[in-house]
Known about the structure:
The protein is α/β, with parallel strands linked by helices.
Amino acid sequence: MEFDKIVYAIADNIISGLGATTAENTDKVLAEKTGIGPVDDKSLYPEPFPAQRIDDRKLTTSTAYQQAKAKGMHRLEQLMVASASEALARTPIDVEADDVIFIFSSTKGNIRLLDGAKGKVPNDAFLDQMAKRVSQFFGAKNDPLVISNACISGVLAQVVAMRLLKSGSYTTAIIIGGDELTEFVISGFESFKSVSANPCKPYDAQRDGLSMGEGVATLIVSTNAALAGKHPIMLAGGASSNDANHISGPSRTGDGLYFSMRNAMAEAGANASEIDLIDAHGTATPYNDEMESKAIGLAGLNKAPLVSLKGYFGHTLGASGLLETIICLECMRRGIRPRTLNFEQLGVPVPVNVSTKTEPAQLRTVLKTASGFGGCNAAVVISSEKRGKDYTATTETKATATCRISNQKVQLNGTTVYDGTGDADYGQFIRNAFKAIAQPYMKFPKMDDQCKLALTATEYLLKDHGTDDCGEEDVALLLACNASSLDTDVRHQEVIDIKDPYMPSPAIFVYTLANIMEGEICIRHKMKGENLCLVTGGKKESSGFLTNYANLLLAEGRAKKCLIGYADYLQGKYEAEITLIEKKQ
């Protein structure tokens, strides 16, 4: 059996309101049929709204779905099991092998479990527990990875998988992305006034907001060439970045997304004229689509056909980047370019070539992009041509400094530099600790407790071991946590539990994403390099992976320095340990 370091797309599946297989979903897209329709469900939102929903009754023929249901697994987990089973059924992959890894992308997972929990956090609401239940259903031996990087999660999961496989850490990755419609999410986006009253119109002059959707998708990738088939498609390049602009608003220049696009294309060895299609985020919100047009212009891709699939599926959050990539894979196989549904008249400041009809087209190389809250961006290049490079570089690294915060003390390289044991509580401690090291910062009081924790640890770390010698793209930020944003999630749930008056708070909702702590750090220190937010079982479970991943980025020249570590806060319990890593001189 032949093995190489080209990462092949082996098998896939999509479950959405359009169907329970990739073929069914693609057929509907190419027939220009939308899954978005009116939803009048008071358990989701007091007023009707347009969205795309999965009809669970269409999955009753799935044996895996029924087994997961019988085991008492939660709805999202049942859907993930059904999707992964359908994809795995078309491969000979042994999921119990040591060289197979499950990677999950989700923003909120089983967040519906907070409804009725009255401020308590059920164990099943933790993202790492969801991932373990699904991967263990298949008998997986390796602990799964959970990437929760807002709306780029599905694209970033592919980038991480590609890097792990190219570096030889694993042979096969089973990537599963999923999020479901919940009152928690709908109320939050409605509080931002970002949900349109009509099906969304990406890039259109009359666009006025997004449409919500739910979906689950599975993509299996492998370096095993024997599984690639006669006409293989590959993950050829990928990258992530940060805008360092605002936690809920995209860059006004498009530079952050452009960095991801440029770096992904550079790794794939693809220039602008070789991109046959851009499948962009295209949420149809005014600022997102405007920003994307600017990034596309910076990348010299104005003439490349551009499509957004949000008009078919709505915004499926952690599933979106994966689901949309799979549609692109199938369109490449069929030789058809899809239309951007509901687009009529260009309404973005930089001219872009929006696809206005479904038609035959040779799609050899496709660029998939995504952007999200916290300023995060990601891009991946998929191609039917052998592109990209092996990861062969190695380097020796060193830990320059480590900051640890726990038990109301801040320690730098093992020495206590702030002792807050006299402070009344965590709130007073973290405020005083930050004041002791930094000048007044107006944004600090507005942050949630986890962001304050991560930012304070970074502030101490960079005070005497800074990154002043680095450019804005030279520092990678790789953080992990266990509770994700569950502490703030509880606060948002408590707000929406009050039905009269029903007033979800955008100021709270924006912090219901784990990666926002990275966004706050990037804004404060003007960092626009690689970003990654993992949700793991704890600090020990994340440290080895983050160290190895940082070494990979440093060796490949993706960063000159890396900030890696752990920052976790939940209902008064907290711990942070962040380390600055760089190459040895």
